[in-house]
Specification:
alpha/beta; two-stranded parallel sheet; 351 residues
Amino acid sequence: MRDSCARRAGEVIVVDNGSEDGSGDLARRAGAHVVEEPRRGYGSAYLAGLAVAAGEYIVMVDADLTYDFGEIPNFVRELENGAQVVIGNRMQNIKPGAMPLMSRLGNPLLSGFLNVLHRTNVHDAHCGMRALRRDVVPTLNLRTVGMEFASEMVIRATREHLDVREVPIALHPRVGTSKLSPFRDGWRHLRLILVYNPTFLFLVPGAVMFLAGSIITLLVFLEVPVFGRNLLLHSLIFGSLLILIGTQAIGLGLSARAFGVYFISEQDHLFQSLRGRLRLEHGLALALVVLVAGLTLIGVVVGKWAANGFGTLREERLAILAFTVIAVGAQIFFTSFLLSIIGLRRPQDEQ
């Protein structure tokens, strides 16, 4: 590899991801180190290449001629100046015919959504030309095997507080048939962006639903009119549904955050702080309190029923509330055990 300043020694690694056009053989005859990766997928190919790369700096480039290899020195220069991950930015220099309209619209939207949810500052999170220091590969701990690999690298680099920089590059028309599916691959990126933020995906909606359900339930029992009308039994059922779904979403969010901390090296200071103070027994104690409250309400219902000679039961509202409280207690009980099970795999020094 050459740049404008000096000759550089390096290796060229080509990942043959099940190609049928003989490109792997061509690369091998040209002197490249060809890695066979039978598992199909953009991420699978790059994970295989990263696993065998031996140089201090790694430059990643798609092999469809959409990127100018002459721009590699610009990426290396940023690494030499202290950057740990360098991402290309194509959006200001897209050659005619190089990017379809759907991608021109979708890339900025997805990159912007990623920036908002994960507090990143990358304008082209899906660019296929990027560079990184080899010593940060274990830190990134990349796992995805599809096109979402590009977004995962940006998210993980930001979570690990790595020095991420951008380099403006040009995007040229590709050679060969594109395997990109805008809707399918766009969804995979969106899915990953959401999954890596359980607070936005689970905890915030769960808390909103739980709060809304609790307010509706309270208004029903206090018989406070809303827009001039009292809320009746159907409103109470809706409020109870929101409480149950909200509780479940909160439990799933806590479990997702626990998984991130224990299995993919997420730095979640709030969860880690709570983990140091709360144990399984605290969750079980809370579940017991809630269950006792629900059973007490059931007792009140049965008591009123008995007082009426076990005739027609007219405590529908109180019965719905009682069963809702019992269900919430059961969810807290099982979520506590699930969090404990996830935590079994944490390092010994954290137990």
